[in-house]
Structure to design on (554 residues):
């Protein structure tokens, strides 16, 4: 049966009129073919329903092949390299090695893309040490910024630098990070997407366990960088105070240490610590500073003069103390009062879930000493929490949608027929993400939610109009066939408008579109597959349910 097209123009010689005639003729031919397809589907409804279920089941095999990430990786236009030489390396040698790294950067990044290189080497004792990631003289970081409009992405440059440094500077430990604000927020302030923290009261045991775990984590295929920022074997001296000898000279242990700290780091340990200008009344902090390079050798260190309120005369440091060489940690980090050793894990791509699962397996297989525990922190925490919340939210949303449809249609069966479009939409999402090489992340999950709303509305159009035609006296088969033919136009209009509108975003054509491409890809894939099957599956399922009832009544 051919429906008349309202408002069709069959006359006119303009290009618009000719296009309308051509389009309507082609659309009528497509409707005829679609009607024949629906009739064949209605002749074998069980085949259509079971075939669609099989397609959905087979598509689930793609899920293990997809990577799982928290948020799509975006080009920050810069990258940072954390460098670490052998513990005890002098500052001059660290500076030379950092200069070699800078030279490599200039070889890898062409001048047309290179913006600026900023290096920070070593650490200065004092308050400024709080604002650097360096922990000692053998550590440094190099920040590289790229020019606007750079042709090659920052992650590609990081991969090239990683290969070059492994070949030409194997003596340096290096950890790469994007240095972007988005990654810093997603990592919860940590420099790595995965931070495996080993904590315990015995710092030596914790550091030993961290090295063992790091060696095994490096074998994970997706891992690009494994970095332990803390060192437990930095050359140091232990100062033993002879309390009896010090007390005889009128000094306490606290006074001895205060004198040493003041001599080495110019600490503000004098009294009074301020001076009042008699003219203006302003208060000025008053401190004492040793001359630069005053303590340049062991002889200078042992000759530090010690003074105290009860001391009758200054005495040398070696008269009340003894020095012995030892090893000490470069830094002691804490998390909630527990001392921790961090293992920073960088990834070669966005697949955070597979790497985190592998690390969990390594930790479970490792026998930890008594009092040692491990915790996985960083972006992986937010990802797992978000996925759990999304799974629960999606289930509740579908239940609520079902209840709303039950109230709308006054039936428990019609909402189930309508929701048959959702599984095939999920199949389309999996297929599209797999074909595009995109991970399953927060953006693609948001696309799933939006896709569900659109495909359900398409099913509602067919089911609602079928019931209206049945109320006019048509049989179930006739009503389903006619409803599909009439409602095909709005279903295609809605779906094609959405797909075409999201195509530029899915193809990553705009600036920053890589962050939103998974959302568009999920909607396009789910909507395309769902529309192709819904316009056949929903009529077949409707006929199975209501055709049997019609037969029973007759």
């Amino acid at each position: 049966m051919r429906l008349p097209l309202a408002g069709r123009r069959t006359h006119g010689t303009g290009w618009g009129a000719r296009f309308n005639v051509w389009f309507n003729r082609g659309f009528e031919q497509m409707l005829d073919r679609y009607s024949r397809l629906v009739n064949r589907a209605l002749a074998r409804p069980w085949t259509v329903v079971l075939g669609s279920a099989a397609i959905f089941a087979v598509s689930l095999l793609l899920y293990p092949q997809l990577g799982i990430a928290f948020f799509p990786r975006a080009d920050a236009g810069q990258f940072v390299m954390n460098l670490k030489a052998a513990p005890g390396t002098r500052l001059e040698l660290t500076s030379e090695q950092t200069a070699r790294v800078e030279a490599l950067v200039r070889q890898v990044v062409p001048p047309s893309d290179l913006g600026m290189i900023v290096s920070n080497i070593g650490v200065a004792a004092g308050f400024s040490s709080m604002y650097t990631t360096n922990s000692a003289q053998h550590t440094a970081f190099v920040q590289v910024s790229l020019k606007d409009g750079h042709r090659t992405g920052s992650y590609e440059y990081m991969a090239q630098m990683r290969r070059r440094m492994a070949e030409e500077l194997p003596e340096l430990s290096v950890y790469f990070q994007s240095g972007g604000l988005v990654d810093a927020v997603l990592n919860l302030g940590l420099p790595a997407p995965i931070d495996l923290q080993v904590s315990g009261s015995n710092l030596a045991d914790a550091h030993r366990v961290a090295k063992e775990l790091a060696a095994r984590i490096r074998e994970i295929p997706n891992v690009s960088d494994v970095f332990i920022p803390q060192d437990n074997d930095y050359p140091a001296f232990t100062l033993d105070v002879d309390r009896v000898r010090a007390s005889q000279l009128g000094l306490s242990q606290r006074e001895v240490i205060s004198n040493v700290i003041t001599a080495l780091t110019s600490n503000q340990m004098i009294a009074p610590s301020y001076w009042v200008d008699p003219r203006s009344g302003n208060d000025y902090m008053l401190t004492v500073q040793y001359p630069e390079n005053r303590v340049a050798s062991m002889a200078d260190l042992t000759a530090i003069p010690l003074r105290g309120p009860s001391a009758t005369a200054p005495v040398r440091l070696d008269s009340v103390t003894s020095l012995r060489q030892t090893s000490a940690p470069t830094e002691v980090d804490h998390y909630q009062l527990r001392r921790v050793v961090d293992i920073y894990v960088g990834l070669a791509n966005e697949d955070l879930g597979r790497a985190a699962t592998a690390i969990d397996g390594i930790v479970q297989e490792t026998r930890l000493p008594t009092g040692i525990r491990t915790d996985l922190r960083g972006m992986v925490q937010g990802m797992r929490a978000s996925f759990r919340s999304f799974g629960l939210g999606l289930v509740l949303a579908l239940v609520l949608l079902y209840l709303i449809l039950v109230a709308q249609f006054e039936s428990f069966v019609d909402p189930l027929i309508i929701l048959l479009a959702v599984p095939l939409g999920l199949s389309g999402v999996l297929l599209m993400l797999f074909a595009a090489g995109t991970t399953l992340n927060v953006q693609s999950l948001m696309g799933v939610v939006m896709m569900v709303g659109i495909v359900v509305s398409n099913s509602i159009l067919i089911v609602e109009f079928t019931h209206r035609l049945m109320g006019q006296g048509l049989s179930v088969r006739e009503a389903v066939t006619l409803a599909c033919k009439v409602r095909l136009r709005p279903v295609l209009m809605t779906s094609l408008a959405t797909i075409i509108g999201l195509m530029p975003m899915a193809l990553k054509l705009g600036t920053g579109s890589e962050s939103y491409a998974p959302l568009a890809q999920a909607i396009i894939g789910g909507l395309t597959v769902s529309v192709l099957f819904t316009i056949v599956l929903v009529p077949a399922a409707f006929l199975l349910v209501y055709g049997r009832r019609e037969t029973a009544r007759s």
Notes: The radius of gyration is 35 Å.
